[in-house]
Amino acid sequence: PIPVATNYEFAPVKVTRRQATVIHPPVYGPGWIIGNGCCANLNAHRSVVWPVNGKIHVAERFAIDFSQLNAADRYLEGPADQLTSSPAYGADVHAVADGTVVSVRDDIPETPAGVAPHGLTLEEGGGDQITLAIGHGRYAFYGHLQHGSISVHKGQRVKVGQTIARLGNSGNSNAVHLHFHVMNGPLWAASNGVPYRFTEFDVVGKVVGERPESELVIDPTDHGSRHDELPL
Questions:
Q1: Strand 64-68 to strand 92-94: parallel, antiparallel, or no bridges (unpaired)?
Q2: What's the rounded Cα separation, in Å, for the pair 37 and 45?
Q3: How confident is the model at residue 28 (pLDDT cuts 50, 70, 90)?
Q4: Rounded mean pLDDT of 56-74?
Q5: For residues 46 and 132, what is the distance between their CA atoms, to the nearest angstrom?
Q6: Which pLDDT score, from 0 to 100, does residue 195 have?
Q7: Which helix H or strand E contains 101, and what residues bound it?
Q8: Which of 5, 29, 91, 158 could form a disulfide with 95 if both were Cys (CB 3.0 to 4.6 A apart)?
């Protein structure tokens, strides 16, 4: 009934001294919300483990869901059951670094807005997707892309900032957003997520609530420019 601090000795654990990779953001422009991001709390990314091929992986440990608000700080600009009501729908998605396309999938239809998909396999969960090899054993993963929008192919070299697809709602997604993370292998669910930093971004504030008609309340206390940081 009374917690007692106890020390346990297990096995040696190798901790890298390597600095987190610095990359450019995958989306540009105003109004982007960092959803389910690292590292304040366990969430739909950080607390999920994948048992794949007999091993446990935490692929989404540092993943971010990018959603976008309009000028009135709302997620939707029309009917909730229309993908086009989202300001993010069709937004350009960019290469975060110079690299090589190691895999592409563009055969999964988009999920209707507000619908929780069922019956997807693990491979289908990421939706239409791209994986880039960005050097030094690091891979950038983009998920839930707009069906038919991918403009690169396996083996293609890409330059940082290059538009590689558009943002959509394919796979395991019930609202338009871009799932992005960096990992230590080319298979998005059979790799481990690793930390990364964005070259620069501007913090507008932190979402602290919601008003009627889905207008978000944003606290601007910690606003300002950031360089070589991970959001949150």
A1: unpaired
A2: 8
A3: very high
A4: 93
A5: 21
A6: 94
A7: strand 99-105
A8: 158
Cα angle, residue 230 at apex, residues 202 and 138 outer, rounded to 5°: 130
Calpha distance 140→188 (Å, rounded): 9
The verdict on whether omega for the bond into residue 38 sits within 30 degrees of 0, i.e. cis, is no
Task: Give Cα separations from 147 to 80, 81, 89, 119, 150 (angstroms).
Answer: 20, 18, 11, 19, 8
Instruction: Please tell me the number of Cα atoms within 13 Å of 100 on its side-chain side.
Output: 9
| DSSP states of 126-151 | T-EEEEEEEETTEEEEEEEEPTT---
Q: What does the chain come to in residues?
A: 232
The tokens of 57 are what? Answer: 């992986």
Pairing of strands 21-23, 196-203: parallel
